[in-house]
Amino acid sequence: MPNSHVRLSSRAMAFVLAGGRGSRLKELTDNRAKPAVYFGGKSRIIDFALSNALNSGIRKMAIATQYKAHSLIRHCQRGWNFFRAERNEYLDILPASQRTGGENWYMGTADAVTQNIDIIDSYNIDYILILAGDHIYKMDYEMMLQQHVDSGADVTIGCLTVPREEASAFGVMDVDAAGRIISFLEKPADPPGTPDDPTVTLASMGIYVFNWKFLREILIEDSENPNSSHDFGNDIIPKLVKGGKAVAHRFTDSCVKSTPDAPAYWRDVGTVDAFWKANIDLTDFTPELDLWDHEWPIWTYSESVPPAKFIHDEADRRGTAVSSMVSGGCIISGTEVRNSLLFTMVRSNSFSVLDRAVVLPYVTINRHARLKNCVIDRGVVIPERLIVGEDPEEDAKWFRVSGKGITLITQDMLDRREAALS
Q1: Which residue among 43, 54, 90, 218 is least enclosed by CB atoms within 10 Å?
Q2: 184 occurs within a structural domain
């Protein structure tokens, strides 16, 4: 066991599972994996898991990629290239790489780790933290590592506290008074309460801590089992709950908050509605997710761009933004922006109105456009006088309109519309 004064994070690595297609985000993941989707004005979703690891003191990381990984790999090369091997710091990107004969894709989340055992061995670590690369939250993993060591667990599983009536959408844990997991139930119709509060359930966050030597043996055994799907949630975790010591770690114990009474913030932005809402929530007077916190920054690739600029000051042609976030490089030229989030290098022209719009980088909005309750994909050119968000039937002819009335606009959709109207 390490000396008590040595942070456990210095003996650990983070293995980030970032191969997810994220198909519920529809066209937003046509050309990029879900962890590479933009979030919060200048970040990408994967930056949250990586920043949590870095801020927790972990300096060895690996990212397993699979589906449409190019933009994710490029982002990590540009934004996360400050690790120095001579200081025992590593960030390795691990595409499914035909390391095994025949099947070259990762077959499941556990197989993604199994295929890279030799690389993980070379890190010379004691503990491995398995992370999902597609959630928005701030968490100090050192606390979870500490609990794992103190409890003598085979696996420690990060858990959210969710109301019982909402827990059917998750894999949930039934725990005893000591926090040991008695059973693991995948999306149960009647989720169990917790020993201290029967109205809430512990739901898996897809975050696991293992001793590496122990996990290594389990993975090799699993890889030789023809009946296994080689997945943590389906195979490894249920097996350890049944035959080993699995312990729940509550997110509320390690959530990083800027004030003690702030809520424990965690979001899966896996649908267009959830993605839109989590971004728009950042424009609130006091957002639940604090991106201004210097103590726990969200690191990312920052392009070198000039500050945002607002021009024109006439009655119906004024560059303004109210209750909005506007990123660097934006030019708001005679446009009214309300309750919106604009990513880097958005150009918006005169007499246009943006209301509750999430506008991804390098979008151009031409004159007299009115855009409300929408998500605009990167690089889109909005034509003059386009109106979105006022007539759902008209919007649905050309664009994807979600169940909650949020319109997703991509360049392909606009091109098809233009072809049809010309």
Answers
A1: 90
A2: yes
The verdict on 160 and 76 lying in the same domain is yes
Question: Can you tell me the distance from the alpha carbon of 298 to that of 93, in angstroms, rounded to the nearest whole number?
Answer: 20
Q: Is 267 helix (H, G, I), strand (E, B) or coil?
A: strand
Look up the CATH number of the domain holding residue 362. Answer: 2.160.10.10
160 and 215: one domain?
A: yes
Domain containing 329 equals: 309-421
| Domain assignment of residue 191, yes or no | yes
194 and 237 belong to one structural domain: yes
Distance of alpha carbon 257 from alpha carbon 66, whole angstroms: 32
Q: Are residues 245 and 317 in the same domain?
A: no
CB 134 within 8 A of CB 47: no
Unique residue bearing structure tokens 């109301």: 163
Dist. CA 189–CA 213, nearest whole Å: 36
Report the C-alpha gap between 285 and 281 in whole angstroms: 9
**Structural domain count, the chain:** 2
* Residues contacting residue 106 through CB under 8 Å, at least 6 positions apart: 19, 64, 66, 96, 112, 115
Of the candidates 233, 53, 207, 72, which has an alpha carbon nearest to the alpha carbon of residue 131?
207
Q: For the whole model, what pTM was predicted?
A: 0.94
**Could you tell me which residues are annotated as the binding site?**
106, 171, 186-187, 204
Q: Of 232, 266, 283, which residue is a domain's last?
A: 283
Q: Residues marked as binding for alpha-D-glucose 1-phosphate?
A: 106, 171, 186-187, 204
pLDDT per residue, tens digit, the chain (422 aa), is 444 567 899 999 999 999 877 788 999 999 899 999 999 999 999 999 999 999 999 999 999 998 888 999 999 999 999 999 888 899 999 987 655 554 557 788 999 999 999 999 999 999 999 999 999 999 999 999 999 999 999 999 999 999 999 998 888 999 999 999 999 988 889 999 999 999 999 999 999 999 999 999 999 999 999 999 999 988 999 999 999 999 999 999 999 998 888 999 999 999 999 999 999 999 999 999 999 999 999 999 989 999 999 999 999 899 999 999 999 999 999 999 999 999 999 999 999 999 999 999 999 999 999 999 999 999 999 999 999 999 999 999 999 999 999 999 999 999 999 999 98
